[in-house]
Amino acid sequence: MSQDNSNSDGIATANDTAAGPQSGRRDRPLVGDDVVLSYSGTDEPVIDGESITAEPGAVTALVGPNGSGKSTLLKGLANQLEPEAGSVLLDGQDIQTMGTKAIARKLGLLSQESTSPNSISVEDLVYHGRYPHRGFFDSVTEEDEAAVERAIDLAGCGHLREREVGSLSGGQKQLAWIAMVLAQDTDVLLLDEPTTFLDLHHQLEVMEIIETLRDESDITIVVVLHDIEQAARLADRMVALKDGEIQARGRPEDVVTEQLLAEVFEIEAEVSATAQGPRVNPIRARHDGDEHAAGDDSAEPDRAEEIVAE
Amino acid sequence: MASETRGATDVLSRARTWLGTFDGSLIGLCVASVAVAFVAGLLQVSFGAYSMTILEAWQAVFDPKVLFSVQAWQSFFFGTELPELPKRTLIVWNIRMPRVIVAVLAGMCLAVSGAIFQAVTRNELASPFILGVSSGAGLTVLLTLVLFSSLAPFLPLFAAIGGSIAFLLVYMIAWKGGTSPVRLVLAGVIVNMVFTSLQRGLFFFADDLGVVQSALAWITGSLTGVGWEEFRIAVIPTLAATLLALAGARQLNLLLLGEETANSLGMSVERVRFMLSAVAILAASTAISVAGIIGFFGLVVPHIVRLIVGSDYRRLLIGCVFVGPALMVVADVGARLALNPAQVPVGVVTGVVGGPYFLYLMRRQEQMGEI
Q: Roughly what angle, to the nearest 10 degrees, separates helices B228-247 and B269-291?
């Protein structure tokens, strides 16, 4: 249980370790090496041999259109989907050879859709995040309590702790779930579309949590985001996927270009650089054979926006 | 000012929620269950073919000749010779009391079993009956009774084997890269149908009418004629299954969050499911081996408890441990005394009451199935 305590304290020891991120395995907290991922019952792999390295202590955003395989890739990295070939390395160790609890102590995953009984309280839900740190008969320790407090505080859902999850709004629920993953106290955090379906207020709140995590701890975050502008604002590095292939990777200002938007997202858009990263002004959807459509860019901006924000 | 009052009401509401959801309802439920079981148990020992007054029954229950007699307790627990007792005491302690106690054990087992199955399958409709465990265990019990009557002491074991086989069959039929509530129920219907037919077929191999009648009682679920021997068969597996279930409450709670979440929190979901199912099968088989197939009980009791204490399995299971016995003793009072002097199997009572409840659930819930 207590192995690697110095490393797995994520939030707590943020500041001391942030100073020396070069130390040993910290360099490569999560690496997908030539992974092939597919779902049972389908012949074609969704991801056919892609490699990805999560930037240590930073936010890596996976973006791409619907069905581009970004969530699948995340599932593969989270050991929710066993790769047919290739390997996923967590702290330099092949994730397949690790025990499930050992993985969960180092890597947290927030799935896209989470279900829970309606009558569970937020606090009880967050305590479930301590599961990988507890043995079968262990009761709650002070360490568990501290981690839960920290997580609730960080996720800003202290005012909800006694509420039943069933009575919360979608945004509040998401905060509760984020608190649960934070209570897991991991070095690596994977978030699958944490802002989708939330109202703007809660979208921003979730983004602020991620920013806080990046600034005040050395947690490595990989996040799938639907909204490319949001991703550009939030991420230190972006990885763009289309049809299961990584099309571009790098800093947001290098990835978010008019050319990439055209190729990957099949939209025509104007990209302007701002202090908060590149801004995307979607103009219209491109269709096959639309090679020189730049001329009528005023056409139906609303529709294009819908597609991006979908 | 405003923030002060808000702080105060916050503390108040917190205290209230804490009392209300954590302790109040559960303690109330447990106390009420004990009271109900006690009253029903007293009715059960007081009335019957040999009539005595309530006062006489009380005197018999608290007869020091039993309460302080090592020999008597040895006889109950280990099946040794009973000491000389007055007639009333003998009837109360040797005939009526064990029936109440076995009802307590069976009720506990079925309620706990149903609760576990509902979490493992994340299906509100799951119960040992619906998942085929009952019919599988019933089949092996009948096989033992009709064909291998010398193996009767191993009934719980055979019942557990039969129950496991049936459950695995149901799971295999329902499995299609995962299961869904509806597919599980349908698979359960299929397996139940086959196993029930086999049970009926067995009747034709019975030598005499007595065997047929007792076999019929098994299939319907009856506590008629159970004695200390059934208590001795059931007590250890019941305690074991209940304790294991309570120990697994946190795992059950986590399973309610869905396979994916449980997985990402480091649970070996399939293994935990398998082990908890084994506990549930043990519990159901224990009840079946002493009381036959008592329908609807394992489905309905966890529901009633959930309505009162919520879905936290620590509370739910504790509630089941109390409510199950209480309702089973009550149902058995109905079975034994309602049509006095005729007795009906207790499974008839639970079916008649449980069926409409099931219907009520079905009508009330739009999204039926998932917890």
A: 160
Residues A78 and A136 in one domain: yes
Nearest to A80 among B250, B254, B264 (CB): B264
Same domain, A279 and A228: no
Q: Single out the residue in A256, A271, A300 at which a domain terminates.
A: A256
Tell me, yes or no, whether A100 and A200 share the same domain. yes
Closest CB from B177, B266, B371 relative to A100: B266
The A-side interface with B (CB below 8 A) comprises 40-41, 78, 80, 99-105, 108-109, 111, 114-121, 124-125, 128-129, 131-132, 134, 136-137, 162, 184
Q: Kindly state whether residues A218 and A306 are assigned to the same domain.
A: no
A249 and A226 in a single domain? The answer is yes
Peptide bond preceding B341 in cis form (omega within 30 of 0): yes
- Return d(Cα A45, Cα B85) in angstroms, integer: 78
Q: Which residue of A has its CA nearest to B272?
A: A136
State the 10-residue block means of pLDDT for chain A, 310 residues long. Answer: 40 38 59 87 84 91 90 90 90 89 93 83 92 81 90 92 90 93 93 90 92 90 91 92 90 89 89 84 79 46 42
The model carries a pTM of: 0.82
Within this chain, do residues A173 and A274 fall inside the same structural domain, yes or no? no
Could you tell me where the beta strands, DSSP code E, fall in chain A? 30-37, 47-53, 59-63, 85-90, 93-94, 107-110, 188-192, 220-224, 237-242, 245-250, 267-274, 277-285
Interface test with chain B among A115, A125, A189, by most B beta carbons within 10 Å: A115
Q: Please name each of the domains of chain B with its CATH number.
A: 105-364 (1.10.3470.10)
Residue span of the structural domain in which A86 resides? 14-256
Q: How far apart are CA A60 and CA A223, in angstroms?
A: 6
Give the ipTM of the model, two decimals please: 0.78
Question: Which residue in B316, B129, B157, B128 sits closest to B233, CA to CA?
Answer: B157
Q: How many domains does chain A have?
A: 2
Q: Quickly count: other Cβ atoms within 10 Å of residue A253's Cβ.
A: 14
A168 and A78, same domain (yes or no): yes
Is A7 within the bounds of a domain?
A: no
| Ramachandran region, residue A185 (left: φ > 0; alpha: ψ -120 to 50; beta: rest) | left
Tokens matching residue B53: 């007054």
Picking from B11, B265, B271, B307 by the largest number of A CB atoms within 10 A of its own CB, the best residue to mutate is B265
A272 and A156 within one domain: no
Q: What is the mean pLDDT of each run of 10 residues along chain B (371 residues)?
A: 48 44 75 93 85 84 84 85 84 90 95 93 83 88 81 78 90 78 83 90 79 79 87 92 92 89 89 89 90 87 87 91 95 87 86 83 63 54
Q: A218 is written with which tokens?
A: 């050395």
Residue A1 domain-assigned (yes or no):
no
